[in-house]
Amino acid sequence: MKHKRMRLWLAALLCIALALPAVSVQAATTITSNQTGNHDGYDYEFWKDSGGSGSMTLNSGGTFSAQWSNINNILFRKGKKFNETQTHQQIGTYH
User: Fold this and answer.
1) Fewer CB near the last or first residue (10 Å), C or N of the chain?
2) What is the DSSP code string of 8-48?
3) Phi and psi torsions of 85, nearest 5°
4) 71 and 55 in contact (C-beta within 8 Å)?
5) How do 64-69 and 29-31 pair as beta strands?
6) Residues 58-82 pLDDT 10s
7) How many CA atoms lie within 13 A of 59 on its CB side?
8) Separation of first and last alpha carbons in the chain
9) Predicted local confidence at residue 12, as pLDDT
């Protein structure tokens, strides 16, 4: 009886695992020149002025890490980007 219950339990777990949606995660990408784009479903922007150095590593989700040295102005940004034509009702809630 215990083996039958264990098999049923394992079969249920397998069904649940197969029913879950696959999560697609991009590998980390490092940027060192001015650019904008989309990574792992999030918009990003990297900008620096001349001189000095900087890098932005785009990690999974909305996260990133940044490094800079001997520079006057630098910008790192990653998140959801919306234009001014959308109301908050049109944008809705996101997680």
Assistant:
1) C
2) HHHHHHHHHHHHSPPPP-PPPEEE-SSEEEEETTEEEEEEE
3) -85, -10
4) no
5) unpaired
6) 999 899 999 999 999 999 999 987 7
7) 5
8) 44
9) 62
Write out the H or E segment, with its range, that includes residue 76. strand 74-79
Task: Specify the pairing of strand 29-31 against strand 53-58.
Answer: antiparallel
What are 5's two structure tokens? 């219950």
Q: Considering only residues 4 and 33, tell me which one the structure prediction assigns the higher pLDDT.
A: 33
Tokens of 48: 């620096």
How far apart, in whole angstroms, are the C-alpha atoms of residue 43 and residue 82? Answer: 10
pTM: 0.62
Phi, psi (5° rounding) for residue 36? -125, 160
Q: Under a CB-based contact definition with an 8 Å cutoff, are residues 30 and 56 in contact?
A: yes
- In three-state form (DSSP H/G/I as H, E/B as E, the rest C), the secondary structure along 52-72 is CEEEEEECCCCCEEEEEECCC
